[in-house]
Amino acid sequence: MDYIFSEKVSALKPSAIREILKATQGTDVIPFSAGNPAPEAFPVDEIKRISAALLEENPILALQYNITEGYLPLREALKKRMKKEGCFNPATDDLIIVSGAQQGNELSCKVLCNEGDTLICESPSFIGSLNAFKSYNVNLVGVELEEDGINIQKLEDALKSHSGTKLIYLIPNFQNPTGKTMSLEKRKAVYALAQKYNSFILEDNPYGELRFEGEFIPSIKTMDTDGRVIYSGSFSKILAPGLRVGFVIANKEIIQKIVVCKQVSDVHSNIWAQAVCHKFLETVNMDEHLKRLREIYRHKCSLMLSEAEKHFSKKISLTRPQGGLFIWAALPDGSDMVGFCKKAVERKVAVVPGTAFMVNENDITYSFRMNYSTPTDEQIVRGCEILGKLSKEIFD
Amino acid sequence: MDYIFSEKVSALKPSAIREILKATQGTDVIPFSAGNPAPEAFPVDEIKRISAALLEENPILALQYNITEGYLPLREALKKRMKKEGCFNPATDDLIIVSGAQQGNELSCKVLCNEGDTLICESPSFIGSLNAFKSYNVNLVGVELEEDGINIQKLEDALKSHSGTKLIYLIPNFQNPTGKTMSLEKRKAVYALAQKYNSFILEDNPYGELRFEGEFIPSIKTMDTDGRVIYSGSFSKILAPGLRVGFVIANKEIIQKIVVCKQVSDVHSNIWAQAVCHKFLETVNMDEHLKRLREIYRHKCSLMLSEAEKHFSKKISLTRPQGGLFIWAALPDGSDMVGFCKKAVERKVAVVPGTAFMVNENDITYSFRMNYSTPTDEQIVRGCEILGKLSKEIFD
User: Fold this and answer.
1) For the purposes of burial, counting CB atoms within 10 Å of the CB of A166, is it exposed (0-12), middle (13-18) or buried (19 or more)?
2) From A4, which residue of chain B is nearest by alpha-carbon distance?
3) Considering its fold, how many domains does chain B have in total?
4) Is the pLDDT of residue A23 over 80?
5) Sites in chain B below the pLDDT cut of 70
6) What CATH number is attached to the domain comprising B26?
7) pLDDT at A15
8) B2 domain residue, yes or no
9) What pLDDT shows up at residue B362?
10) Which of A234, A263, B26, B365 could hold A68 in an S-S bridge, CB 3.0 to 4.6 Å?
11) Yes or no, beta carbons of B260 and A68 under 8 Å apart
């Protein structure tokens, strides 16, 4: 029979990144293409210990249905933690556990946006979220991302020309794919614009705790005096992504709607994983744990930057992230960037062509994304040599 | 600020059942209201053993990102198992792991239905699925459920008057909330109607393996010669619902779209749970395990039926399920059923008013749902006494 799909999903394609991952899984291709945390960053021993104790002491908790809002002790622990950061206001906010920040971003769009409503995002931005928004048939408008965050003038232009814009989606810290961080001034300016044009802000912060350089910059959520910021957080990068545990903080009314939508999506998130996250927060010294992660990523990032600088053609410019997992590499204007990425994978190094992150497929970019958390040190060195040789053949 | 939600979710309310569950959690109210598997049905020792071995032997697998389609060995094991049942055709079908059958049902609707498209279901039916469909703003049309399944004449009438109906949603085995089972004749008739009116069928089968009486009836999926049946299965009732692992079988084209929608929803399901399910299928004698579960539910169901028959007013009629978790109790026509349920909870027995399962809130029903899997034997006896006394006060 003929399969005619709904309008909202018929044009939706699998994420180019996940397709590259599938294609290179189990091969000898060097993975600069993933967004996986470094395996050595996983606190395996602690999780083993916590899981064994949980299944010994309270197996029914870990196996039975639970409430959609999430495991209560985990919610309480997170509220306390986020209140300290100024990101949770007990008087007006609530917090729900979701199956990864991805679900938080998806459901935020679902509860707020009708088909055709405008949602503004940085361009380039995280493809997973962009596809989630597209799956609700919203009018996705990309605004140029500069070194210190979104172009404020262009953001205002977009808000003006798309009156009634529902949501502004931002990844202020170590953005995916660029590794760029939004300055404090711009965070304030974005919030002021959201007030002026009465839009919500969806602040996605999966990498915030992985800052290994530079000074901490407060979240936009800390400036939220009128309940317009939805904050998405995650355990994927600080604990383990296979758990699929994230959380959303927003005004209670918004969280109530997200609860209903989560209920019809997956009832609740895996409860073993929620209980593991809770015990981890309670029994592990988080400062020490995060310090260890930051050391791992500082080392890997600086190794990739120094190897790339050593080997790459001088015509390629790189971002210098202060945290997170990604470096954004710009080829000279006019280059065949996609061709470069294809040749790279033929030589056994996978990177992600920047086009995968553009709001419109036909938007032009000459950049590609490199990830330093997944490959081993040896792979980083070897991969940079290979990309370097390729770049010199083409550009020098 | 004013919170204006999207049209599709603004009218959506939390499931009445889950609200009752939240309200009665941790109280001394006897829970005839839940849909939880019996805690004694959980294979705790096996899960402990499997989890410990997994985290010992392959912790990175259990913690790292995986592909959206699901853990490959689990998919292969399920395909094999479902092929044996005639529910998986390797030539045309594919199988995706989802975060519970709930997600399978939600995503089936998302990929097929535009806002306003008609989706036909049994009335009453499972509120979680109905709300999932409503959250995509479909035109939900309920068709009367008889003792042996949906009323075929009324189904055809509905298909005629709603031309282009996209989906027919059915729970053929031990339906939630009624416990009723669709006859083989009706399954064939429904399939023939779906062919005649070119609709898809979404066959939700979470309870199918919990048959403790009567003869096995083949799934509608086994009759699917032209790829119009989407089959939703689950580990929630045969292993543990806290795991949030289910699966969907459908034509490859449909599964491809569900993959994309799942990718933007939660990337993939918790991978520890997927690996646990896989090892469970591989290392536990499933026939023995299911036999044990069926014994538990046969006992509990027959205890509740005999106690209810002993104590209830003779004016209340009960369904006699051949499997699953629920009994549907009908008060005399014209009774104040919601009032009865309210009085029951005041006397510390929670049941779910049938209105919670109706397609339209104003549809009339005089029935309520009783669950026998969650309460202990003592609670079943005591609860039936209390409900019996109440029913006699009102109806005798």
Assistant:
1) buried
2) B112
3) 2
4) no
5) 18
6) 3.90.1150.10
7) 73
8) no
9) 80
10) A263
11) no
Q: Is pLDDT at A17 greater than 90 in this prediction?
A: no
DSSP state of A243: G
Report the amino acid identity of residue B70. G
CA distances to A58, A81, A269, B311, B327 from B318, rounded to whole Å, are 36, 51, 34, 13, 7
Between B1, B18, B39, which is nearest A64 by CB?
A: B39
Per-residue confidence at A216, pLDDT binned at 50, 70, 90?
A: very high
Whether residue A132 and residue B265 make contact (CB cut-off 8 A), yes or no, is: yes
Shared domain check, A317 and A193:
no
Q: Which of B36, B254, B264 sits opposite A65 (nearest CB)?
A: B36
Q: What is the CATH number of the domain that holds B134?
A: 3.40.640.10
Domain final residue pick, B235, B259, B283: B283
State the sign of the Cα–Cα–Cα–Cα dihedral B247, B248, B252, B253. negative
Option in A1, A66, A269 nearest B227 (CB): A1
Test mutation, B44, B74, B264, B271, chain A, max A CBs within 10 A = B264
- In the predicted model, what is the mean pLDDT of chain B? 95
SS (H, E, C) B239-276: CCHHHCCEEEEEEHHHHHHHHHHHHHHHCCCCHHHHHH
Residue A235 lies in a domain: yes
Is the predicted pLDDT of residue A362 greater than 90, yes or no? Answer: no
* Domain end residue (candidates: A258, A283, A308): A283
A216 and A352 together in one domain: no
- At residue B27, the pLDDT reads 81
A140 and A250 share a domain? yes
Identify the domain containing residue B31 by its residue range. Answer: 12-42+287-395
How do residues A165-206 score in pLDDT, each as one tens digit? Answer: 999 999 999 999 999 999 999 999 999 999 999 999 999 999
Contacts of A138 in chain B (CB under 8 A): none
Residues of A in contact with B53 (CB under 8 A): none
pLDDT digits (tens, 9 = 90+) for B323-338: 999 999 999 999 999 9
From B6, B64, B270, residue closest to A36, measured CB to CB: B64
**Contact: A271, B242; criterion CB under 8 Å:** yes
Residues A118 and A254 in one domain: yes
Same domain for B141 and B253? yes
Average model confidence (pLDDT) across chain A: 95
- According to DSSP, residue A195 is labeled H
Q: How many CA atoms lie within 13 A of A26 on its CB side?
A: 5
Q: CA angle at residue B244 from B260 to A11, to 5 degrees?
A: 10
Coil vs helix vs strand at B51: helix
What letter represents residue A54's amino acid? L
**In this complex, do A34 and B198 lie within 8 Å of one another by their Cβ atoms?**
no
Q: How far apart are CA A353 and CA A366, in angstroms?
A: 8
> Domain for residue A1, yes or no?
no
Q: Which residues of B touch A48 (CB under 8 A)?
A: 52, 55-56, 59
* B6: in domain: no
Q: Domain check: are B27 and B66 in the same one? A: no
- What value of ipTM does the predicted structure carry? 0.96
Q: Are residues B18 and B159 in the same domain?
A: no
Same domain, residue pair A266 and A297: no
- In A, minimum Cα distance to B130 occurs at A264
How large a percentage of chain B has pLDDT more than 90?
Answer: 93
For B49, the token pair is 């053993």
**CB contact (8 A) between residue B272 and residue A242:** yes
